[in-house]
Amino acid sequence: MKNLGQMMKQAQEMQSKMAEMQDKLSDIEVTGSSGGGMVEYTLTGKNEARRLKIDPSLLMPDSAEMLEDLIVAAANDARSKVENKVQEKMSELTGGLQLPPGFKLPF
Questions:
Q1: 40, part of any domain
Q2: Of 35, 44, 28, 45, which is closest to residue 73 (Cα–Cα)?
Q3: Contact predicate 55/39, CB 8 Å
Q4: Which of 9, 28, 35, 79 has the smallest number of CB atoms closer than 10 Å to its CB?
Q5: Is residue 91 situated within a structural domain?
Q6: What pLDDT is stored for residue 33 in this prediction?
Q7: Domain count, the chain
Q8: Is position 105 within any domain?
Q9: Which residue, among 71, 86, 81, has the nearest Cα to 41 in the 3D structure?
């Protein structure tokens, strides 16, 4: 039973570290870009939008469709970078422990 107690203690420590990491994700900012940097979209580690920066040369009525595409591309780039950053932080937290397929953290 000593091993079970040790496992429970480790699980509680991991839970505490997870909660701490969740709090820190709000402080992480990642910027995705498209159009050679003409559109930049910034997200937090919790996928909350912080900023959208658009080069003024794109603000013409006849380029609305292109601008929309660039915004979507920049947002997707930022989301991908956030996912990578969160995975990196999770790997640090779990000490490189590989999680089962389909098991995603944070919940």
A1: yes
A2: 35
A3: yes
A4: 9
A5: no
A6: 96
A7: 1
A8: no
A9: 71
Which residue is listed with tokens 């699980």? Answer: 11
* Digit-coded pLDDT (tens) for 68-105: 999 999 999 999 999 999 888 877 776 655 555 555 55
Q: Would you say 39 and 54 are in contact if contact means Cβ atoms under 8 Å apart?
A: yes
Whole-angstrom distance, CA of residue 3 vs CA of residue 88: 29
Sheet with 49-54, edge to edge strand ranges = 29-34, 39-44, 49-54
**What number of H helices and E strands is found in the chain?**
2, 3
Residue 41 belongs to a domain with what CATH number? Answer: 3.30.1310.10
CB 40 within 8 A of CB 51: yes
Full-model pTM: 0.70
Instruction: Specify if 64 maps to a domain.
Output: yes
